[in-house]
Amino acid sequence: MNKLAVVLGSAATALLASCATAPEPVAPQQAPRQAAPAPAPAPAAAPRRCDAAVTFQKEETFPFAKDELTSAAKGRLDRDVLGRLAACAGVEAVVIEGHADRLGSSQYNQKLSERRAESTESYLVSKGVDRDKIETIGMGKTVPAKFCPDIKQRAELIACLAPNRRAIISIKGPAR
After folding, report:
1. Lower Cβ count inside 10 Å, N or C end of the chain?
2. Closest to 100 in 3D by CA, of 146, 149, 144, 136
3. What tens digit of pLDDT does each residue of 143-152 get?
4. Residue 158: which residues within 8 A CB-CB, separation 6 or more?
5. What pairs with residue 53 in β-bridges?
6. d(CA 146, CA 163)
């Protein structure tokens, strides 16, 4: 065992000697402190808009097979369309969609819906809206607002389908 003690003692001595000659570990140096970057400027608020959509409802809808505006429709245009346009700094576009119910041929309803959009346009132009800012489109019977599948009596069906005989007016522009 004496030999083992000598070997272990030599190993311990060598280990201690290597520690004594090894350089001291150096603490990592900290980078010099820099000022925090300035916060990015807040994004500019999006400009306010006066965009709106107005849809004729109930007594504002067009009478069956007609393209004349009702007095209720005119009142709605005065209040909700012209009123909104007055709040606009400028008008980019006024889009008028005319719609029809499903009664009648596709060609008939297409033409009728176009005439409904045009009569709405004429009313707005008569109230001072720039015709060049207005676009009209006839949707025919392609986008119904209401379905009435189980009604057999024609007069009842015509009354049920009234919500489909409408105009939708969309306004686009920046607010004041």
Report:
1. N
2. 144
3. 999 999 999 9
4. 64, 101, 103
5. 170
6. 6
With a CB cutoff of 8 Å and minimum separation 6, the contacts of 67 are 98, 112, 115, 116, 118, 119
Token couple for 111: 């033409």
The DSSP annotation for 1-25 comes to: -HHHHHHHHHHHHHHHHHHHHSPPP
Encoded tokens for 32: 């010099």
Q: Are 121 and 95 in contact (CB under 8 A)?
A: no
Cα–Cα distance between 53 and 130 in angstroms, integer? 18
Reported as a single tens digit per residue, the pLDDT across 85-112 is 998 999 999 999 999 999 999 999 999 9
- Residue 148, CB-side half-sphere exposure with 13 Å CA sphere: 19
